[in-house]
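Incident log, structure service

09:12 report received: a user says their structure output differs between two submissions of the same chain.
09:20 pulled the input from the user's history:
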Amino acid sequence: MKPTLGQVTAAGFDANESGRIVAAAWREIPAHFPTVKLDAWCVMPNHLHGILWLEPADGSPKLCPPLGLVVGLFKSSSARRINHLIGIPGAPVWHRNYYERIIRTRDALDPVRRYIDLNPEKWWEDRLRPRL
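09:34 re-ran on a clean worker, output below:
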């Protein structure tokens, strides 16, 4: 996917207006889904990394929104806003799918948080990074 959300600099990630839209849409997730909490996350030039906690209020998994619904709302909301900004309705912003992983233990959580926090400074080492 083409880098359209900003650029990585020596100081970290510098979001452009599209990147700020993505960040705002991510931060809004708990307003739409009160049982979903945000953990570590970062916007990158062409994607976002984030940890979501799905915490049903009464402990019942049936009251927890499906992850696909949460991610789908985030992607459609941010894409609509970006398309309005650039003046191209329906332009693709996100890949069709997303990568998910269940983090079950604290020992597994901390490395994922570190990966997210360090992602901007590792950008230049990523062999899958789009080349302009």
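09:41 both user submissions now match this output. Likely a transient worker issue. Closing.
09:42 reviewer note: The radius of gyration is 15 Å. The first helix runs from residue 17 to 27.
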